[in-house]
Amino acid sequence: MLVYLLVFNKQVSYTADFGQTRTIVLPDQSTVVLNANSTLHHNSDWDGGRPREVWLEGEAYFSVQHQANAQTFTVYTQNMAIKVLGTEFNV
Predict the structure, then answer these.
(1) In terms of CB atoms within 10 Å, which of 29, 52, 69, 77 comes out highest?
(2) What pTM was computed for the model?
(3) How many other β-carbons are positioned within 10 Å of the β-carbon of residue 72?
(4) What is the pLDDT of residue 5?
(5) Is residue 6 classed as helix, strand or coil in its secondary structure?
(6) What is the spatial distance between Cα 65 and Cα 89, in angstroms, rounded to a whole number?
């Protein structure tokens, strides 16, 4: 199990440093603007059939692209999970 997690469950991480913002274009063409001192992670193996999931520490503005197959997009934070299909929102 540990080998699977280390080899097959790689994550991509983005960070906005103190006093900066950072704009990220995700593999599905959704965009995220990270606020200062914020971090976003997602699995490196996004494909068309799996739910789109990201993990956020801090604050970010999301512009989520709706997918033809109604694939969900979930943002996980320390206190909640936000599930959408395609919209714009701030967390």
Answers:
(1) 52
(2) 0.84
(3) 14
(4) 44
(5) helix
(6) 12
